Amino acid sequence: MVQLGQVQSKEKWRRVKNFIRYFRRPPTKAELLFYVIIVALAVAGAMFFADHAEKKAAEKEARRIARMERLAELERERNKPFSPEEIQIPESEFSFYEQLANRSFHITGEEAIGGTHYVEPKPKPKFELISESSGYESVDTEIKNEFALELLSTSESFQEPAPKPEKGPSKKLQTGSFSSTFEANIHKSQLESLGYQPEIQKAVVNGKTIYRVKIGPFSTKDLAQVKRHLDVQQIKFIEVKP
């Protein structure tokens, strides 16, 4: 009598043989086509994901390079030395009527002599000894010498009075009028670099706020010299009241 365990082991072994025999047999056309499609899909999927990952890596690298270039550009701009030629100062906003209202007239030819007239200094007094002869040459010589010494000491002690300081009206020069404090401060810095002490005055003309840059006041003598200096620096100006 055959035992139950032996029957079951034989059944298992038969199934294994059938399974091995199934895979060892040549595949049918349908199975071969199915396997080709599976492999093609796997290869296509792998290539798609690889290409996508490569594109993402390239985009990430491009963004990193662009960011580094922007930071380098900002650093160059921050460390760039200041150049006065790069400052574009707009033309002054003077109007014809403003110039007529603010200007003051001066004598023609005033700048040629510095604003003052040259006064010829008074000649020193000359002394001439005139005396009658006493008949004694030695006595006459002694008298002349004593009198000459007395006159000489008197003339040396004489001094002309110091000229009185000029009390003419002082004036200011307006060198610019701007629509913003930023432009006015740039022009002010330019004047300070030339040794002046400018000031900015706020004004409202026809409902519009402007910022006037002025220097001074100057005496009549100094005013002509400042005008010549501003002309050399090609800075426009008009005279205004202090």
TrEMBL record:
Give the start-end ranges of region Disordered.
155-175
Q: What Gene3D superfamilies does its record include?
A: Sporulation related repeat
InterPro entries recorded for this chain? SPOR-like_dom, SPOR-like_sf
Domain of life of the native organism: Bacteria
Which segments cross the bilayer?
32-50
**Which ranges carry the SPOR domain?**
165-242
What keywords are annotated for this sequence in UniProt? Membrane, Transmembrane, Transmembrane helix
GO MF term set: peptidoglycan binding
Name this protein carries in UniProt? SPOR domain-containing protein
